[in-house]
Amino acid sequence: MKVTAKTLLIPTFYLLVISPFIYYLEAIQSILMILTGLQLLSLTKFSDLKITAKNVPFIGSFFILTFYYLFYFGSSSLKLIGESFLLFLAPLWSYYLYQIDSFIRHRKRIQLAYSISVSLLCMYFIGFYIIDIPNHHFDWYLARYNLEFYCKIHGTYICLWIGIALLFLVDYISDIKDHSKGLKLCFLLLFVNLLLGLIIYNSRNIILGLLVIVIIRFTILKKQKIVLPIKLKVITGLIIAAVVLLSQRYLDAFHFIANDSFANSTRYASWTCSMELINESHFLGMDYSLIQQRLDQCYQSFDNFELKKFRINSHNQYLDFLLKGGFLLLVTFLWTLFLKIKEALKQQQYLYLSITILFLISFITENILVRQYGIYIYFVCDVLLLGAVFRNKDHSIHEIEKS
Fold first, then answer.
1. Confidence at residue 135, expressed as pLDDT on a 0 to 100 scale
2. Through-space distance between the first and last CA atoms of the chain, rounded to whole angstroms
3. 74 secondary structure, DSSP code
4. DSSP letter at 22?
5. Reported pTM
6. Residue 103 falls inside a structural domain
7. Helices 350-365 and 317-346: crossing angle, nearest 10°?
8. Which of 46, 114, 206, 222 is least enclosed by beta carbons within 10 angstroms?
9. How many domains, in total, are found in the chain?
10. Which positions fall inside the O-antigen ligase-related domain (predicted)?
11. What would the pLDDT profile of 263-312 be if each residue is shown by its tens digit?
12. Residue 92 C-alpha from the chain's centroid
């Protein structure tokens, strides 16, 4: 068999989605993302390329960022331009993936492979947590600090990975009608591993995002007059209660807000200082290379040890894009998110709808698309699923998936 970019595409996708298990080797993820992007580029039929209402915000976001990274104030950054390419342009070629039968047949298996990889990673975190009990004595804050310090991954990013893995797993299970007992046990173990990993790291915005998704999905099912088993509703409620009650973080959060401590928090300071810089730039963006320096200067007026010791960014993806590319970039970026939700609802692609909602909420408290771990999962989800909502409305993928 002749080896081509198309024949290598599926193996590359499998390598890409199992790379979270070796997350500490960031260079491997970078290489696999670049390789996937180049393979997608090889599929592109340039004669068919047209600017449409669907792809214009993605193209606009890329070119606005590229303009700022190349010409606006600071020195150019090819690395940041490459990241923008992976975030906004490469996923558009996912459209061509849905013209390849082998990809359509493997897509859900690729998603399952990702869930397995993240589940194995959660087993490592669970093991570390158990061994570390003599040090943290079940204190959530100390346990998470130790995990982040030794495992070298921020809690929000790993919880985002876990949240996506849970959504992929539930989507895969829901499409299989006849489960053997052995398969059911395997799925249960995967789910429990992911859930325990989520509880241990317990990122509030990701937990909130998953809760919002559950409510939205149940509402959609109700409108479709699909009756859910009482057992499923009870299990879902118990899982939500367990996630909230097994962490002291939520009770502490209510206490924190009740005592008017929010004004001294790092996020209040980062959001306030970010807005000051945005106003100074007249919502037109500023030199990306100076943003952190200017934020650090603004933080000096706050009585907060963390702000003086650590380099705290804007902690909000929307503010980050306002800082880097002004209101034009924010508008095109929000437009991409709006289109994803609109098309996912229109074509009943509820997995992609759920994932987009999870990102929307995670963007409120973190600069997800600044670190490679965030770029990676955003890229993976868009490449795998964007083509499903951008494909021709008469082209069905379900028959091929079941064959």
1. 94
2. 23
3. S
4. G
5. 0.92
6. yes
7. 170
8. 46
9. 1
10. 190-334
11. 667 888 899 999 999 999 999 999 888 899 999 999 888 877 778 778 88
12. 17
Instruction: State the average pLDDT over residues 233-242.
Output: 78
DSSP state of 25: -
The residue range of the domain holding 78 is: 5-258+315-402
Task: Report the distance separating Cα 87 and Cα 372, nearest Å.
Answer: 11
Examine the pLDDT at 80 and tell me if it is beyond 80. yes
**Dihedral Cα 14, 15, 20, 26, nearest 10 deg:** -150
User: In the structure encoding, which two tokens stand for residue 297, read together?
Assistant: 């200067």
CA distances, 5 to each of 37, 48, 91 (Å): 11, 20, 17
Q: Is residue 272 part of a domain?
A: no
The amino acid that residue 347 corresponds to is: Q
Taking the mean position of all CA atoms in its chain, how far away is CA 324? 20
Element (H, E) at 302: none
Q: What is the torsional sign of CA 318, 323, 324, 327?
A: positive
CA–CA distance, 37 with 118 (Å, rounded to integer): 22
Which amino acid is located at 359 in the chain? F
User: In whole angstroms, what is the distance from residue 192 CA to residue 74 CA?
Assistant: 48
**Residue that the structure tokens 């209510």 belong to:** 254
| Residue 399: predicted pLDDT | 46
Name the residue among 215, 216, 167 with its Cα closest to residue 195. Answer: 167
Residue 147 lies in a domain: yes
